[in-house]
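Field reference: sequence -> structure
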Amino acid sequence: MKIRIEMDMTPDEARRTMGLPDVSGMQDKLVAQMEKRLLAALDTSDPQAMLKSWFPLGSQGLEQFQKFMWDSARQAASAATPRKDKAPR
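Structure field:
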């Protein structure tokens, strides 16, 4: 048996219906803080300083992320490829 309920409401109405807290004030403060930091980094007109603030680990962090992605892809490919040493039943 399937029961389908469709409700037409705004995100704010849905949040209040489910009893979730209103975090819009905190979100506004966070966005303002991020904007302030971004503008401060742009004002320096130093691309290297801006990249350091965005990527604190620098190229090391990027290399670690790339290694993680390649390792994950290899594992997914090896799991999807049937082994040749086992005959199909």
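Note: The radius of gyration is 24 Å.
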